[in-house]
Amino acid sequence: QLHAHSWVEARIPPEQLPRELIKGPDHWQWANGAWLRLDPTPAAAETAAATEGFWAHWNLWQDWWSSYILDMDRRQQYESIYEPVSAALERWWLALKDFDRWRARLHRAVEAFRAADWPTRITAASLLVLLSVAAPWLIAQLRRRWRERRRAPQYGPNGAAQTSAIAFFARCERVLRKARCVRTSTQTHREFAAEAAAELIRRGAAAEILPQLSAVAEAFYRVRFGRRPLDAAEHQAVELAVEAVETQVRAVRRARRAPGPAKPN
Question: What is the phi-psi region of residue 230: left when phi exceeds 0, alpha when psi lies from -120 to 50, beta otherwise?
Answer without folding.
Answer: beta
